[in-house]
Amino acid sequence: MFSTRKLGQVSLHPGIATALQHHFSRSLVSRSFITSPQCVKTILLTRQANQNRSVWGLIPASCKRLFSISSTYHYEVSVVPGESKVTDLKPDAQDIFRTAIRSVYPKSMIGNVLLYNAVTSTLKVQGKTYKLDRNVFVVGMGKAVAGMAGVVEDILGAHIVTGVISIPEGLQEQIQDENPCGFPLRNTTKIQIYEGSSRTEADEASYNAAKAIHNLVSKLTEKDLLIVLCSGGGSVLCPLPHSPITLDELRQVTRLLKQNGANVKEVNTVRKNIEVLKGGGLAMEAKPAKVVSLILSSFIGDPIDLIASGPTCPSQPAPHHCIEIMNRLGIMDQVPESVRKFLERETVILSQKQKILDSIQAKAELDATWADIQNIVVGNNSIACEAAATRASELGYLPLILTTKLVGEARNIGTLLAKLAKFIMMCYDRKTSMEPNMELTILEVELVAGGIRKEWINHICNSLDRAHNMNKDLCIICGGEIMVQVKGSGIGGKNMEAALAAAIHMKKLFRLEEMPVAETRMCFLCCDSDGLDGVTKMAGAIVDQDFLNKVEERGLEMGDYLENNDSFSLFSQVDNGQYLVKTNVTGTNIMDLVVMLVQKPQDRKYAWI
Ligand SMILES: Nc1ncnc2c1ncn2[C@@H]1O[C@H](COP(=O)(O)OP(=O)(O)O)[C@@H](O)[C@H]1O
Ligand SMILES: O=C(O)[C@H](O)COP(=O)(O)O
Q1: Beta strand 397-409 pairing with 473-483
Q2: CA of 490 to the centre of ligand 1 (A)
Q3: What span, in angstroms and rounded, lies between the C-alpha atoms of 33 and 514?
Q4: PANTHER family of this UniProt entry (predicted)?
C-alpha cells in the first residue's frame, strides 16, 4: 500500500499519485497533494515485505517514467524536501497596493492642481487664475476631505478666512492615534470640523455640518473664492433636505430605496432632487462667488454629478425620474408624504418651465451661470491602478491592468479571478505542451460568461506570451467597486469577502480537482482604498496557497464563513490575522483594488503525467 509521509507542509504531489495509480492498482494509492512541488528533490520509495524494509528506489522529482513493475509488495512513498525555490508573493502584492494608495494621497493630487504664486498672490487652476486676498473659503464633505483640506490649508493657509468640513465620525481621533504627524489640519486651523456617521445614514451631526456649510456659502460675495472638497461618503455626510422634508424623512426614503434594491446612482439621483446642496445646489447657493471644486472620485467613470451627489456639478432637475424609480421599486406608498408631494410639485413646475428651459437663450444663460465654477477630478481609481502597474514593473512583474471598472458581488469577483488565475496557469503550461486542452476551453467559456470579455482574454494571453518570453511573472490589477448584499450576521467587508471567495475557489480549482498547476504560485489581494473594509478596521485581505494550508490545519470551513458574511472572523483566526491587510485610515478613497500575482512555473510541470 502506498502512503504519504508528511514532511512539514509537503505531501504527495498529484502528478506522482497519478503516476503511481497508473502503474499500480488505482485503489492502492490514495491521493494527496503537495503544496510546493519545487520543494521536492527526490521521491523515496521503500518496499515492505514480511516486515523487512528495503529502499527500493530513490527517484528524482523530475523523472518522467517512474515504475515499470507491478507487485504484491507494499510500498511506502515519501518525499525528501529539497531546497525551496518558492517565493512568498504576499510582500510584493502589499507593496504594489500600498504604492497605488500613495499615488492618490491628497498631497500629490491637490499639489498638482492648485498652483499658488506667493509673490503675485495668485492661484492658477487648470488655465484659470484667481487673485487671492484673504478671500478663500473652504467647505468639504466625504471620507477623504480631512487630508484634502490639510493640503489646501498648507498651500493657501494665509488666505483662508474660514471653512467647514464634514468627515466620518472618529476620524480625527483615529488619524491622531495612527499617524505620528497628527491630524492633517493645523491646531490653529480656521476650518471647522464636523464628524458624522458616514457608513449608514445621515445623522444629526452631519445635518448640522450641512447647515453650517449652507450658512457659510450663502454669505459669499463675488470677490470670494470657494474651494469645495468632495469625496465618496459626501452624500451621507452633507444632508440638507428641501423644506418641508425633515432629516428623518430623508433617512426614511434613502433607507427604503436601498432596502428595495436601488443602486447608488438611483439613490443619489433622488438625493440630488430632494436636497438643497446636491445636484449643483451648493455651487448655486455660493453665487456670486467663484468656485473651484476638487473631486476625488469613488465612482466608476468619474461621473462628477454623482460623486457626493454632485454638489457643484450642473444637473438637470429630474423629479419625474425619482417618481419613476420609486414606482418601479414599488415603494411609492411607503415614501413619506412630504417627499412624494415635493417631487410631484416639482414635476409640475418643471413641465411648465420645460419650454423655456429648452430655449437657446435659457441654455446660454445656464452656461454663463456655470462659467465661474470649475469642477476638477483630482484623483481616481485609474491613477491608482497605473501607479500599481508601475510599481509591479519595478518589482520585475509584467503588469496588466485588466479593468478599472470592476463591478459586482464580492463572491462572484473572487470566484472569477480565481478561475482567471487557473486559466493563466494552464496557459503557461500550454507553452510547453500544444496538445488540445478541453479544460482550458471550458474555462475560457466560463470566464467569458462571468464577465471577462473575449478581448480581455486575448489581451491576457498576449501578456502571458510576453511574460513567458521575458521570463517574468504576471501581475493582474483591477480597480472598481465591489459589493456585498449582507444577509448573514458575521463581521466582514466587501474586499475580505472577495478574497475569501477567491480562496474557496483556489482550493476547489487547484486542490480538490487535483490540478497539476498547483505547482504555480499565486496570491490574491483585495483591499478598500480608504483603509476600512466594511465594518472592520482592516483594508482587506490577501490569500495564497499557504493560506489554504493554514485554514486546513485549523479545520476551518471557509464556506460557512462566507455564507454568514463572516470573512473578518475567519481571517483573524488564521496565522494571527497575518492575511488581513492593515493600512489604517488612508485619507483617500478611490474604491477597491485587486492585485493578483501569478508566478510562472519554476520547472516543466506535467512531467509525471
Ligand atoms: N459582514 C459583512 N461582510 C461583508 N460586507 C459587509 C459586511 N458588513 C457590511 N458590509 C458591506 O460593507 C459596505 C460598507 O463598507 P465600506 O467599506 O465602508 O464601503 P465603501 O468604502 O464603498 O463606502 C456595506 O455596503 C456592505 O455591503
Ligand atoms: O464611497 C462611498 O462611500 C460611496 O461610493 C458613496 O459615495 P457618495 O457619498 O459619493 O454617494
Answers
A1: parallel
A2: 12
A3: 8
A4: GLYCERATE KINASE
* All residues at 6 or more sequence positions from 414 whose CB lies less than 8 Å from its CB, including other chains: 497, 498, 499, 500, 501, 502, 503, 504, 505, 524, 526
Does residue 407 line the site of ligand 1, with CB under 6 A?
no
Q: What angle is formed at CA 301 by the lines to CA 354 and CA 372, rounded to 5 degrees?
A: 55
Instruction: Determine the 3-state secondary structure of 245 from DSSP.
Output: coil
DSSP state of 51: T
Alpha-carbon distance of 459 to 96, in angstroms, equals 21
Query: 452 CA distance to ligand 2 centroid (A)?
Result: 26
On the 0-12 / 13-18 / 19+ scale of CB atoms within 10 A, 441 is exposed
**Residue indicated by cell numbers 487630508:** 147
- CB 256 within 8 Å of CB 331: yes
Rounded CA-CA distance 417/420 in Å is 5
> CA 325, 326, 331 angle in degrees (round to 5)?
150
Spatial distance between the Cα atoms of 605 and 550, rounded to a whole number of angstroms? 25
Q: Does the pLDDT value for residue 327 go beyond 70?
A: yes
| pLDDT class of 3 with cuts at 50, 70, 90 | very low
Averaged pLDDT for residues 178-188 = 74
- Would you state the pLDDT for residue 53? 41
Supply the residue whose CA is at minimum distance from atom 2 of ligand 1: 492
- Whole-number pLDDT of residue 305: 95
